[in-house]
TrEMBL record:
It comes from Oncorhynchus mykiss. This is DNA-directed RNA polymerase. The lineage of its organism: Eukaryota, Metazoa, Chordata, Craniata, Vertebrata. GO terms for biological process: mitochondrial transcription. Residues 51-117, 192-216 are annotated as: Disordered. Its main location: mitochondrion.
Amino acid sequence: MHKIPHSYVDYFIIFSLPFLFAVLKARIQQLQSDVIVDVQHEKVQFVKASKSGIGASSGNSPKNVFGERTEVPKAGQTISKGGGQTGKGEGKDASASKSRWMEKLSQEKKTKTKKLKQKLGLEDKPVKSSKGKLMLPGTSHKTISTKAGIKTASTVKKSKTLKNQEHTMAASKHEHTMAAAPVAAANVPIRKAKGKGKASKEPAPELSEARNRAEEMERKAEAKAQELAEVEELERKLNQWAVSARPELVQDNSEARVYGDVQRSVRCYLEACVFCGDIDRAHRFLLGHHRMVSRRNLLNIGLYNIMMRVWAKKVSAAQYFISMACRAGLKPNLGSYCAALECMGRNPDCSPHVINRVLRQMEEDGLPVDELFSHCVFRQDERDMVLRAIHTSVYAPPPPPPTLILCSVCVFQRADAKYPKMAFSLEELQERFSRQLSIEQASTITIHSVEAMKPVTSHMAKMVNKLATYTYSLRLVWHKALVGALREGKIILASSTQKAVRLSLYPYLCLLDEKDYVDIMIQSLSNLPPSGESLHILAKELGNRVHNMFCIRMKGHNQMVDKLSHIYNEYAELLAKDSKEFDVLPRERWWKLEAEHSSGPSLLGDETHWPHMVVVELGTYLVDLMVKHMKVNSDILNSAYDRKLIPVLYHMYTFRSNKQVGFIKPHPILTQMQQDAMDTTLTFDSYVMPMLCPPVPWTSAKFGAYLLTPTKMMRAVEGANQHEILLEKCQDADLHAVLDSLNQLGNAAWRINQPLLDIIISIFNDKGSEKLDVPPPNSEAPKIPRYNQQDSATFTSAEKAHLKREVVNAKKKCSEMHSLRMDALYKLSIANHMRDEVFWFPHNMDFRGRTYPCPPYFNHLGSDVTRAVLVFAEGKPLGPGGLEWLKIHLVNLTGLKKRSSLAGRLEYANSIMDDILDSADNPLIGKKWWQNADEPWQTLACCMEIANAVRSPDPTHFISHFPVHQDGSCNGLQHYAALGRDVIGATSVNLIPCEVPQDVYSGVAQQVEEFRVRDAEKGLKIAQVLEGFISRKVVKQTVMTVVYGVTRYGGRLQIEKRLKEIDDFPKEYVWDASHYLVHQVFSSLKEMFTGTREIQDWLTESARLISKSGSTVEWVTPLGLPIIQPYHRSRTQMVRVNVTYSRYLNTVKQKNAFPPNFIHSLDSTHMMLTALYCYSAGLTFVSVHDCFWTHAITVDTMNKVCREQFVALHSQPILQELSNFLLKKYWFWYPFPDLCIDTILSRGSFGQFLQPHGLLFALTCIVNCGTLYRQVCLSKSCPIN
């Protein structure tokens, strides 16, 4: 870290004083937070505080028609701002929530108050109540007489709405006013209480001068009003910063994020109850939470809106839920008014004046009527009912939905854009849409397995048929047993006597037909590996399948499918070759069509993603049914065994990473049956398959990709939802470029390279080939050693340990072979199913902005095998230079000639044309030259394409579907070199023109070899052993990943793996050699890329300081995509069906991951810019992160666009903008937001904050001072919070 200049220390001292002053003020407020002050006109009385809490209800108030107690305050009582009754439960919760730190503060307050009284010459004497008990002043309800009017301040718990926050601030201000005399009430006339709310008529004679003192104290307090106004303004701004900028979130609870998971669970429960028709259960559940003050805090206005929408369709009780929400301290939002208007629209007798009153109330709340139709989600005929209500009123009808105004500021020139058409007619695209819709509505799809193509003997066929018949009958038995068990379980759950506020699985078990649940369970059984699966993983898979099917059924129930069909059929005109030309992007076209078809339900559903806990709990329940009720006869495979029913699944425990986890393992009989039966079909979820029609364009962060299957635009780890909050805050225009790039990637059409696929399947069904990355069958797995107990008794302890290791290694090898075999089986079976189809891959992204295809198994980001069988569906002629690019691409795939120029590679390709043609004609019986390449299957595919081209009448007119790749030269180092303007580093990664391409991996290997020779001459043993073994392949992975945060430990493991692959290298020196080489690789990179290491250190140290302050690291990409690192320490505990998570900030990961994630985000930004410009130029473009694909004829154009966008990206002051963003973002903890950071940065030496050491110093100041401030000001009991 750079040394901090002396001038910065001065600024640190200057800034420390306001911090400490603010902390002192907040501390004083805390010490006075339990004083309840009521200012009444010429009345002074002490009222005994209730045991159940100040202002508690007596519990005898009358009930309304719904069974809820009305709030009738008695004399001397106060009612909380939340509007709810305070009872024993509240007092209990309040006392339980006090921390030891707050108890210490309370004790400290009493001590300081006593000293202050002594200094002022006052005594605070205990006062006896009517029952003779002593009442301490700190627990009394004080009422002070004034003539200015009635003012009340109370220290109820912090309200959950902005409105209540303002009341709290007002109360806090008055407490400050009285802070000058915290014991003034002890000197006013006191009347002894004779009953509830009554006072005696005799004043205390020893306090006759108290009124004069109180008035004097009041005048002094009023003199400080100006100072306290500043504190109130600070509180107001802090509260404004604490809530979201969106109007919906401003109206909601300020603590919504604290209770986010609980609220989501409650919301999902209510939605499930409503969907399955159990309205009474949902009503009781919400009412139970509302009546309990401790649970009412967990509710938000959206939960009340769910029930309001239900009762709106019954033309009753909608207004009751609005009143409930208001009593809970929640302000109605657009959804609330929408439900109320829907209810009025369904009621033909509703008075127009009532509707007018609602519309006027909306305007008073700052909610324009037209936003109902742009922000609310409608189901079925809800939109029409709202419109009917508005038209019924005398209120002027809202204007029609705004027409689409295309953004004039785009990332590329719209005037020169030529958006490509697809090689399909409008009728063909509409037919494909219908097929895809049917597949997604079915939720699953069954395809033929490629193993069915394996030849079998007559005896094998007889056995297979026998087992297949038995398996089919067995599944019928399982189906009947599971249906019965599911029904019985639902009856038990439905009749459970548990409290109404407890979450139950019952509504989640009623969302689908019983047959659907059973099909999901049996499908998961067929996909279970022989070695078993973690209970947590299996339960999550089952729960997610239920959730996906539920979302699809809900969209059908909401009548959204018909509207989607109409819009998509018109949207297809944009892509069809026989329709007119359009000058808009897919996103813009979809927006316009959706605006034109505004009637009816909304396409964007408002269903909530189930919390991870709900998914796992539901899945665990289904697994439990499978374990208990799926059984098989024990003599099915061997008639010598006694016949009895045994479970096909076992729940056991195993250890993983020193943790005991639940494990579900199939019985060996089931595994043997599945292998012998040779099931010829595979069943997948519909989203696993590529789409048969172009994806729905992403128009927002919540809508796009599949037709019905729910898909997130941004992937994230389980339990992380910070990125969703950031995306919600984003303006739509900020995400346009990101959405358009995802749409462009998803619109690339693909087809299967059938000749190559047939060759791969033939090898797969033979014995596979490890050299060609085709996994062998399970029959080729090593046999697990088995030893008799008697034989092992004669073994020594060393021999027993050796035998155990052999067994463990054999089991591990068998498990790995099975996993690889099934992965290849899935990929090849999907490819074989799609062999005659044209298909598409919808895309989404991870939290860094890196894009991925949504189908998980088969896509172009897969292995060499899957990439080789994929070609573009659209063909283009090679043109004058296309054949040369095919030959250069072939040499690149082989891994040869890395240091040669493009002309040298082309010359080499021409010199081996005989081998190329022989590989294409005789791939399995010829010279097999292609099998020695780095990417053998892609090399063979390219050989076939070149052979077809050169044998065509005119190669320039040959229609090629083959994708040509252009890969980056260690892309991470390229970005670091460009950021640091590192000339030497830039030369090594081809950012500067050279006569021949530079290979950074070969350069590092060469420098490491020089270090090795030097050390060998000095007599270092390991350096001598490594002679002849240091190659490009050994160091490549470590060099590639060092810029992405790999540590020396991780680098050593990478090099160790490469050394083990070398047969001639002595295995006893692997550890020493890998340890030596990783040190030399890091030293070499440090010398070659000096600027890289400095930038990396700056990013790491910045992230360390940010995470130390308790914040997650955030930034925004140059395309406007907000990024937040989701790294937290998760502690998972699972007991049967209960899963609990406790998440804490993982400061180590936040620090170490920031540099690589920041570079990944820049890499993704460059790819997106290239994709958008290529699309506007009419190119077919796809990417595998930093490897770009296009047709051979358009390679030159793509290269030009790629270089231009890289220069344009790094022409921006990226690091300076990042520094500014971090300062503004984390300057939030500075206690005086009036002091704008922009002003600070513009003053003299503070401009040096833009330099790395300046930013680090600023962050250090924020950490050191801001942390103390946050500990006080962000405490739940702090008055200003």
